[in-house]
Design goal:
alpha+beta, 4 domains, 6-stranded mixed beta sheet, 22 strands
């Protein structure tokens, strides 16, 4: 049972007879009258148990998009159900409105729609539905709770898809589908053409040159049907925020852009997300299904506040990628975690695969490094310069061990990773 705001108003009206006849009997009569009104209103209200509830609508959306979820209420009783419905969701679901007006005649059904604007990835679930059926006098109500399971899977926003057309144009150039031909050092011979200034002399075909009496060079098609393994580090370093973007979310965005580009290039993509344990994996999926499967697997990923196990990561990569592949490690250039985890076992990985390490840089560090105005700013600049020096040292150390490194801020991180992939593809290093 629940009471409405009309009961205090009735109690205030009861002050009038008490003021006219100020005795205990008058007070008792007023109180009994209020109790009778409340009990009668509750008994005349529609029973909550006669309502049947169900859900329908969206089961997934992208982060930043709106999803519509419907709540159907069928009145199986003999009384008209009037009142309020509170459809509660977890706060990060961004559900509106919080309350709905209810008016369902006997034997009929009403559909209430909630709009969800999620603020986080992952599965957004409702908490409970609270129904309050108010009596005809509007003084009291019957109230009950229903739990109706539903799930809206919020997928990564994939904001970097705006960079895809430009990268596809570069890919078509590499594939020889545009007039502007770019020579690659891939393994697939394509055709012969006349030498022009700027061509690599190592591409000259001397036998064809001797037959034609003019200098002729070979052209190559970029390698196709190569394998990519995208490894997402979900350890504590991925929980750090750069501006308003968690490092893990920036890595997910870059991984999706790279996967979309690699699918168009005819390459095969697998996904592995782990720290000490495997959190998600997508393997052996056809090119037409790999992106939806990756998006679904990425939706539920959250950083774990543990250190990454470099040996376990390398062992999993070697077990899953038996053919030579491009292994893209989305992790941090944090010196402590790399020196203790990945660097000691990196040789076994670079000996069998081409390795690209992609790390999200913080532009705030560059801003701090330029500060000189106050004493506090000088200390900040010294700390920022030390951090930049550590990143440069780790980058140089990784490159000495044969690892390609991408270090870019969130705004340009995804296209920088895709550009590195295209450069490796054009050079025939996949």
């Amino acid at each position: 049972m629940a009471l409405t705001g009309r009961l205090p108003l009735l109690a205030l009206l009861g002050i009038i007879p008490v003021a006219l006849l100020p005795n205990s009997l008058t007070v008792l009569v007023v109180l009994l009258l209020l109790v009778v009104i409340v009990v009668a209103d509750v008994l005349l209200a529609a029973p909550v148990s006669s309502l049947r509830l169900s859900r329908s609508g969206a089961t997934g959306c992208r982060l930043g998009d709106t999803a519509q979820v419907q709540l159907s209420i069928t009145n199986g009783g003999g009384r008209r159900a009037r009142g309020l419905v509170r459809d509660a969701w977890m706060p990060s679901a961004g559900a509106t409105p919080a309350r709905h007006q209810l008016d369902v005649p006997p034997g009929e059904r009403r559909v209430l729609t909630s709009s969800l604007l999620p603020t986080r990835r992952g599965d957004r679930r409702p908490d409970r539905v609270t129904v309050r059926c108010i009596g005809p006098l509007g003084v009291a109500a019957r109230q009950g709770r229903h739990e109706i399971d539903w799930r809206v899977r919020v997928q990564p926003s994939f904001a970097s898809r705006k960079f895809l057309p430009e990268r596809l144009a570069r890919l078509r150039q590499l594939d020889g589908q545009l007039a502007a031909r770019v020579r690659g050092q891939g393994t697939e011979f394509d055709s012969l053409r006349d030498y022009v200034d700027g061509d690599d002399v190592r591409s000259i075909d001397w036998r064809a040159t001797a037959r034609r009496s003019e200098v002729v060079v070979r052209t190559w098609r970029p390698e196709r049907d190569r394998r990519l393994l995208l490894v997402l580090d979900t350890s504590r370093t991925s929980a750090g925020r750069v501006g308003d973007t968690p490092r893990l979310d920036a890595a997910l965005d870059a991984a999706l852009l790279l996967a979309a580009l690699a699918v168009r290039a005819g390459d095969r993509i697998d996904l592995l997300a782990m720290d000490r344990d495997v959190r998600a994996a997508v393997e052996g999926v056809g090119r037409d299904q790999v992106l939806p499967r990756m998006v679904d697997a990425m939706a539920g990923l959250e950083p774990a506040l543990v250190e990454s196990d470099g040996r376990r990561v390398v062992a999993e990569v070697l077990r899953r990628a038996r053919r030579r592949s491009l292994v893209v490690l989305f992790t941090s250039l944090d010196a402590a975690s790399l020196e203790e985890g990945l660097l000691p076992v990196l040789g076994s990985l670079t000996g069998r695969h081409t390795v690209l390490l992609a790390s999200v840089g913080d532009p705030r560090i560059d801003e701090m490094a330029s500060g000189r105005g106050e004493v506090g700013a000088v200390y900040d600049a010294a700390a920022a310069e030390q951090a930049r020096g550590e990143r440069r040292r780790m980058t140089a150390l990784l490159r000495l061990r044969g690892v390609e490194v991408v270090d870019a801020p969130p705004a340009s991180f995804a296209p920088a990773v895709s550009d590195a992939y295209l450069s490796l593809k054009a050079a025939g290093r996949l």
